[in-house]
Amino acid sequence: MITIFDDSSRKNKIYQKLKELTISLQFKDGINKIGFEAEYIGRLVGIDRANTSRELNKLVKEKKAIKIKGKPVLYLDRKSLEEKWGCRIENSVFGSREEIISLLKESKLFCRNEESQKNTNSNIFLNTALDNMIGAHESLKEQIEKAKAAILYPPNGLHALIIGPTGAGKTTFAEAMYKSAIQLGVFSNDSPFVIFNCADYADNPQLLLSQLFGYVKGAFTGAATEKKGIIDEADGGVLFLDEVHRLPAEGQEMLFTLIDKGIYRRMGESTTTRKAKVLIVAATTEDTRSVLLSTFLRRVPVLIQLPSLESRTLKKRFTFISQFF
Ligand SMILES: Nc1ncnc2c1ncn2[C@@H]1O[C@H](COP(=O)(O)OP(=O)(O)OP(=O)(O)O)[C@@H](O)[C@H]1O
Ligand SMILES: [Mg+2]
């Protein structure tokens, strides 16, 4: 099948994504976050920022999208917003977030929602990637609460270890944590998510460490030029260390220095230290006490145990499986 990707399908793609994002927003008893940046929307659909902005502005002209001026400029889908919160919005362009918020308040929207959500303190409830996982309200409820708390822990979040058998959803969960961190505004939209599987290099610890931390010229035979490592790439975002029980003790030690002091060295570097800020989400299928240094566990305070697929209820398993057909 040949897909001709013309302007209208590009606009549609963006419009659909904007709709989805707007639907995922929910009010609690106030708002401090509303609207989505062109860059973020564009990244989700694989279209560059300039073209995304162009299409969004067309949608604003057609009165399908709402534009909130400011730095950054934000967009919302009009219909979803109107339907979701039972109000009519005449304007297509707002001067600021405050302006649209006060309009929504005037529409008595808040009174209606306040009633049902009296007991919550947060200003807005965003349906994050974690909330959209299968089992979010049942078998994974506790795990998701823990993960959100880890992400939101000030100032930079808490490192987490996900434990669960193969296929339990560890990689999926880690990715959802990353996406949620962006949705919750903890990370910027362009922050990295880097996956490193410690098992890939398990029989060559030197190679593993050089991949992870990088190396300088001459660090070992064959190190002809300096190379940056995974830590460098993950700076400012999430490093997902899969099968972390395969990380050699030396690597764990180097990771501690990074966790404790925010510094690391490339292999072969003796004087220079480098800075990096990464949130580590590690995963293992093993019983942690037996395979990971106790010092590692002390630095990764959040343990998230995922149930195996078999242990989920039949109904859940059915929902889960039917997703693939
Ligand atoms: N709660 C969930 N919601 C939606 N999809 C899920 C969920 N849990 C697992 N999956 C799906 O199940 C499959 C296996 O999940 P995943 O690869 O994340 O498991 P894993 O624990 O990382 O496995 P492995 O140990 O083999 O790496 C994927 O297709 C994933 O999308
Ligand atoms: Mg996995």
From TrEMBL:
KW Phosphoprotein (keyword) present: no
InterPro entries registered for this protein in UniProt: AAA+_ATPase, P-loop_NTPase, Sigma_54_int
Superkingdom in the source lineage: Bacteria
Keyword line: ATP-binding, Nucleotide-binding
Pfam families noted in UniProt: Sigma54_activat
CDD domains associated with the record: AAA (cd00009)
SUPFAM superfamilies from the UniProt entry: P-loop containing nucleoside triphosphate hydrolases (SSF52540)
Molecular function terms from GO: ATP binding
GO terms (BP aspect): regulation of DNA-templated transcription
PANTHER family for the chain: PSP OPERON TRANSCRIPTIONAL ACTIVATOR (PTHR32071:SF38), TRANSCRIPTIONAL REGULATORY PROTEIN (PTHR32071)
Protein known as: Sigma-54 interaction domain-containing protein
Organism name: Thermoanaerobacter thermohydrosulfuricus (Clostridium thermohydrosulfuricum)
Lineage: Bacteria, Bacillati, Bacillota, Clostridia, Thermoanaerobacterales
